């Protein structure tokens, strides 16, 4: 089993990744929509 410190670090890394995906996905979608509208 992993030690408690390793699990805390893994949890912090995972939460950071989830927050990054949560914020970057809508921003990327808006940018793609704007690019599509400009291309047309």
Describe this structure in words.
By secondary structure, the chain is mostly helical. Helices cover 90% and strands 0% of the residues. It is rod-shaped, with a radius of gyration of 17 Å.
Low-confidence runs: none
Choose one word for the global shape. rod-shaped
Reading the helices and strands in chain order gives H
| Strand count | 0
**Could you tell me the strand content as a percent range?**
under 5%
Count of helical segments? 1
Helix content: over 70%
Through-space gap between termini = 55 Å
Our count of domains comes out at 1
Structural category: mainly alpha
Summarize the topology.
Elements: H1 4-39
Throw out a few tags for this protein:
single chain, 40 residues, mainly alpha, 90% helix, rod-shaped
Concise account of the structure shown:
With 40 residues, the chain is mainly alpha-helical.
